[in-house]
């Protein structure tokens, strides 16, 4: 499994390899590096065993272990991998910068690159970190990175802060507005479906209504400025909306009940794989001809 190299103003992060063993053992040679850990990695054998564990990583693609290089020298390590300590296999960030290089903003710079990769290329909704209660420098790094402190607990054998960073809002949809020929019909179909998916009514006025979930809202409006009374999704413009559904069972359930709320199935002969073998989705069309795709967010193995 190959990790992409990540480049910052002063650093290059590249996938940890066997050839980095001695350099990583050296990074951890100062006992200060292990001050907040259960193991003392200033012992070369312990550090080498830690390198083994990192090299054995077999988790999701795009996550894993990087060495942090400055001017071609390995000065630290960073990781993003499913947490061993937090439930649900959530992605956990870790960063380590050798003592002679500390205090120059390098851990913050390296960890920011890993966060950008996790939120950008991997599309993770959140990244977690566990920082020892007394590790003031690491807590500062996490604060610089925008992590929220959401509590504490015993992790890795001692009291740790539990921190989370959420994917940035920058560039995400703010709202989606659909012009509809019949507001009542749109409310019957969209209102039901969005309500089932956890959206709640947000705004209402004579010609329209909106529903909000998280920071995004969907508007349906029977605008007086409509230039036609029918929607034709094969014309240029929006073809369909695709919404995430937590599980395959919930996609099945919604698809089964949608008919009572103004939706009819599309591509029913190929349900649930009309979008491909690895894609589990229901395609529905309402009376106005709008298409919605309900996509199971869970992987093939289930939740
Ligand atoms: C924690 C660690 C990654 C920080 O690396 P770094 O490159 O020095 O981090 P940065 O320079 O980006 O930021 C460190 C911040 O902590 C501050 N700091 C450093 N030592 C501190 C201390 N003892 N008390 C309070 N703040 C301290 C720095 O001033 C800096 O804050 P500032 O930018 O507001 O001035 C590094 O010391 C390390 O690898 N420690 C051992 C491993 C470890 O604990 N990793 C974290 C596991 S969660």
UniProtKB/TrEMBL annotation:
Domain of life: Bacteria
Pfam families, alphabetized: Acetyltransf_3, Glyoxalase_4
Classification via SUPFAM superfamilies: Acyl-CoA N-acyltransferases (Nat) (SSF55729), Glyoxalase/Bleomycin resistance protein/Dihydroxybiphenyl dioxygenase (SSF54593)
Membrane-spanning intervals of the chain: none
PROSITE patterns: GNAT, VOC
Residue stretches making up the N-acetyltransferase domain: 11-168
Domain VOC stretches: 172-297
InterPro entries: Acyl_CoA_acyltransferase (IPR016181), Glyas_Bleomycin-R_OHBP_Dase (IPR029068), GNAT_dom (IPR000182), N-acetyltransferase (IPR051531), VOC_core (IPR037523)
Protein name: GNAT family N-acetyltransferase
Source species: Amycolatopsis melonis
